[in-house]
């Protein structure tokens, strides 16, 4: 009987000890998660948003010289020298948040990708698709995970929000509770972007086509606003030069004008006739013009003349010849007619 009681007491003691150990382990795990702000699933989802540099630099982008100079001065130089600009006098601190705004197709996202390559720091690209979740409270946790990871492991780092108006529109009474809490969490983390000591080399870059629709509190947290507008004639020429850098020939052609002939610079002529076009519009125009050139040159026959063992695009370019102004004009007329149809349909 005594042995049975002793065995029972030992069993109870072992059970209590094991329960206490498990409770302590669970408490430690919860504290660890609170310290890091996120669990491994959230962290993994955010790590997938870290962008590998594409190799494209700011100088590879045509036009936008003032914008590129601004970004180089306020983003690239400080992040390359964090001990000077983030840990030194406050007068040297760069803006914590930068907002790129302007019409669609002007190169805002392209500028961000170039910054990822040229800055040489970690670049985290976030969007609504990344941060929004169907589960209650998960979106706010993903936001917290992103900023926590940037401050603790990835710094120096750029956090990029593409089309931020999709997640940061002005708050209203019609917002669902989960949407409202998500926006509040985003604002809270933007306030603490530079860490508890105010010296973390982390910057936020956001772009939008609808700056006026953003929440006023979000606008305040992105104090440095850069307008990325439509290019002027000089900028359009620079964009065209970069688009056509692989073209054969000098870009100078002789055209018949009545009984006389004259030499023209093809890119300059295209830049003059494309007033109001964005960089994206010019890229699309170049694609259409190249397509008309291939049609004119009878691409099927030319492909048959290529070396079947090692077909080369450069050989084909030599066969079709340089892009002429007539190709650009046909493409321009095609685009203008397409635009008219789109406007008529309200697209």
Can you describe this structure?
The chain has 347 residues and is of the alpha/beta class. The chain has two domains: 188 residues, P-loop containing nucleotide triphosphate hydrolases (Rossmann fold); 112 residues, Helicase, Ruva Protein, domain 3 (Orthogonal Bundle). The strands form two sheets. Strands 2-3-4-1-5 form a five-stranded parallel β-sheet, with helices on both faces. It has a two-stranded antiparallel ribbon with strand order 6-7. Helix 3 runs parallel beside helix 5, helix 10 crosses helix 11 and helix 10 packs across helix 12. The longest helix is centred in the first third of the chain and has 35 residues. The radius of gyration is 29 Å and the shape is elongated. The relative contact order is 0.11.
CATH topology type of the largest domain: Rossmann fold
Total number of helices: 15
The SS-based structural class is: alpha/beta
Total DSSP E strands: 7
Helix fraction, binned, reads 40-55%
Can you name the CATH architecture of the largest domain? 3-Layer(aba) Sandwich
Cα distance spanning the termini = 90 Å
Q: What gyration radius follows from the Cα positions, in whole Å?
A: 29 Å
How would you spell out the order of helices and strands?
A: HHHHEHEHHEHEHEHEEHHHHH
The total number of structural domains is 2
CATH class of the largest domain: Alpha Beta
Instruction: Give the mean pLDDT.
Output: 81
Low-confidence stretches: 33-38, 341-347
Describe the sheet with the most strands. 5 strands, parallel
Superfamily (CATH H level) name of the largest domain: P-loop containing nucleotide triphosphate hydrolases
What is the overall silhouette? elongated
Strand adjacency order, main sheet: 2-3-4-1-5
Strand percentage: 5-15%
